[in-house]
């Protein structure tokens, strides 16, 4: 309450400064807390591992993980590939399945959202495929396509396709009626309205779908590589499991997590660029 | 004025015919899909509809590991229900904690994000290394796989509570706990329910993968069994069963949402 009295006597500029300083202080405090949380976790992990509460067979220390990462950069043992090769092979599969899902899923969703005939034709098929989890396609794709790139890309495609389609569909459905009517009044054809009004206004939701899709793609990829593969990060984890190398398993998990985070940061940046107008 | 049907304008007539067409189109597309299925199955290893049906009947006559299809579906469902019961209590509580308390948010968010960045299935090797392949590790995998969505949704709901409501609470001298329990949580309920729905479908997917990597019962086990013994009708039948159960779970959770928070029903 005393502060309120203070605020009445100071000038506007001072007040702004005061509030800015307060905000800065709060931001500083919360970032300090975040760092403390992460550091605390890592130290806790290190202490638990060193103290011998859990056998070293089951848990390796963060320092061991880092040193393993450095040796894995050049040493292909025990899964037969250095970590760079594994990362590239995983990324190739994830991005080809994901790219295919965007190329097919988004236009399909847009057309389904705009043209009712198209909707009532495709929708039943889509509703049948949708509830089947992508992982359960793995046996069939192995029979069809073996365990190469194509089979895994197809599984990733199934995982990424559904959110792409649903979101672009919902996005174009939520196009403002007023905008459509304005275009109609100005004599635009249905297709012109679709292209110039429907698609741009669906982009916000479409991007949300793309974000979900890349997460799904990355998550499904790991499963695909564990069940049917001879390379990649998922395979590396599985090999670590089979050789009882817990450090390799944890390293794989950390690398997968870091790459997944990097990808979602990249997509977020792209979104800011494409949808920059939203902030206005 | 004559009878109603004769005075339709051109526009109305068009609308009328289009409606008929829209009703026929799904039938056409579904029969095309069925035809495609039959055709593909003739020329490749893909099982035909009849094979799949026969395999279902055979599973009733000769159960695998003493369980028919309902038994396996039930085994999977029990796993996800135990995991979800845990998630719905601790996940929602944790989401409320980091959505409401700024200090907890700053402290836990980076850690939680790091946890979330790891795909649930990547935990499977580590968990099996630690705990073996019993029942508990599988439930733990499902918990790991479906807790993120409920925490994220709860947190979003809690931090997006309309400021006006809280201000009204302040004016009427509400205590902190009153604000939390009587204003914030009820208004975050629809976000929490969205989390419940996504976590249910995520759990169903993860239990499948967990069972595919080592189990003695459940639908995921059926799929790997079919894969190992090159019994494709069994694989396809399990996939269909999984699809049906997944769709049913989605419908049930949606229905529960309508029942418990009817105001979230969208006006369209």
Keywords:
heterodimer, A: mainly alpha, 2 domains, 80% helix, 0% strand, B: 268 residues, mainly alpha, MetI-like fold, flat
Largest interface, chains and sizes: A-B, 57 and 60 residues
Percent of residues in β-strands of chain B: under 5%
> What's the number of domains of chain A?
2
Topology-level CATH name of the largest domain in chain B: MetI-like fold
CATH architecture of the largest domain in chain B: Orthogonal Bundle
| CATH fold call of the largest domain in chain A | MetI-like fold
Instruction: Give the strand content of chain A.
Output: under 5%
Report mean pLDDT of chain A, rounded to a whole number.
84
Write the CATH homologous superfamily of the largest domain in chain A.
MetI-like
Gap between N and C termini of chain A = 36 Å
How many strands in all of chain A? 0
Largest sheet of chain B: none
- How many structural domains of chain B? 2
Over the alpha carbons, how many angstroms does the gyration radius of chain B reach?
25 Å
Query: Low-confidence parts of chain B lasting 5 or more residues at pLDDT below 50?
Result: none
Number of helices of chain A: 11
Residue share in helices of chain B? over 70%
Helix content estimate of chain A: over 70%
List the helices and strands and how they pair.
The complex is a heterodimer of chains A (280) and B (268).
Chain A: H1 2-9, H2 12-51, H3 62-72, H4 83-114, H5 116-129, H6 138-145, H7 149-173, H8 177-185, H9 190-227, H10 233-242, H11 246-274
Helix pairs in contact in A: 3-11, 4-5, 4-7, 4-9, 4-10, 6-7, 7-9, 8-9, 9-10, 9-11, 10-11
Chain B: H1 10-43, H2 49-61, H3 69-100, H4 102-117, H5 123-131, H6 135-159, H7 163-171, H8 176-187, H9 189-212, H10 219-228, H11 232-260
């Amino acid at each position: 309450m005393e502060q309120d009295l203070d605020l009445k006597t100071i000038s506007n500029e001072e007040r702004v400064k005061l509030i800015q300083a307060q905000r800065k202080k709060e931001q500083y405090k919360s970032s300090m807390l975040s760092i403390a949380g992460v550091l605390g976790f890592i130290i806790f992990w290190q202490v638990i591992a060193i103290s011998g509460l859990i056998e070293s067979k089951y848990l390796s220390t963060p320092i061991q993980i880092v040193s393993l990462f450095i040796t894995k950069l050049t040493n292909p043992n025990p899964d037969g590939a250095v970590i760079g090769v594994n990362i590239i092979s995983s990324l190739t599969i994830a991005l080809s399945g994901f790219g295919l899902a965007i190329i097919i899923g988004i236009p399909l969703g847009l057309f389904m959202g705009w043209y009712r005939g198209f909707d009532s034709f495709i929708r039943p098929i889509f509703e049948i495929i949708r509830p089947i989890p992508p992982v359960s396609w793995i046996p069939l794709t192995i029979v069809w396509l073996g365990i190469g790139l194509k089979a895994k890309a197809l599984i990733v495609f199934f995982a990424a396709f559904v959110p792409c389609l649903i979101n672009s569909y919902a996005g174009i459905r939520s196009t403002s009626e007023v905008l459509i009517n304005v275009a109609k009044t100005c004599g635009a054809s249905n297709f012109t309205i679709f292209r110039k009004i429907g698609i741009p206004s669906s982009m916000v939701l479409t991007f949300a779908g793309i974000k979900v899709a890349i997460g799904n793609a990355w998550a499904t990829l790991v499963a695909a590589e564990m069940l049917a593969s001879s390379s990649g990060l998922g395979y590396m984890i599985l090999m670590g499991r089979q050789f009882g190398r817990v450090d390799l398993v944890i390293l794989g998990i950390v690398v997968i997590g870091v790459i997944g985070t990097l990808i979602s940061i990249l997509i977020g940046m792209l979104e800011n660029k494409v949808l920059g107008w939203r902030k206005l | 004025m004559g009878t109603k049907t004769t005075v339709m304008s051109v526009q109305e007539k068009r609308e009328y015919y289009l409606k008929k067409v829209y009703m026929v189109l799904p039938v056409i597309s579904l029969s095309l899909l069925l035809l495609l299925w039959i055709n593909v199955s003739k020329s490749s290893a893909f099982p035909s509809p009849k094979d799949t049906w026969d395999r279902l009947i055979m599973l009733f006559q000769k159960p695998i590991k003493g369980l028919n299809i309902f038994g396996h579906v039930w085994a999977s469902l029990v796993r996800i229900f135990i995991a979800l019961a845990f998630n719905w209590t601790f996940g929602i509580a944790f989401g409320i904690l980091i959505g409401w308390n700024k200090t907890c948010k700053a402290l836990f968010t980076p850690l939680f994000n790091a946890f979330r960045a790891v795909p649930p299935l990547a935990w499977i090797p580590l968990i099996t290394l630690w705990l073996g392949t019993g029942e508990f590790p599988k439930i733990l995998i499902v918990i790991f796989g479906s807790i993120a969505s409920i925490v994220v949704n709860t947190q979003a709901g809690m931090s997006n509570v309309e400021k006006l409501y809280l201000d009204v609470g302040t004016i009427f001298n509400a205590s902190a706990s009153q604000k939390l329990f009587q204003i914030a949580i009820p208004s975050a309920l629809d976000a929490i329910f969205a989390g419940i729905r996504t976590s249910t479908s995520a759990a169903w997917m993860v239990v499948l993968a967990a069972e595919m990597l080592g189990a003695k019962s459940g639908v995921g086990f059926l799929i790997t069994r079919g894969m190992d013994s090159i019994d494709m009708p069994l694989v396809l039948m399990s996939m269909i069963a999984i699809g049906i159960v997944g769709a049913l779970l989605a419908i049930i959770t949606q229905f529960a949402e309508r029942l418990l928070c009817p105001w979230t029903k969208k006006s369209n």
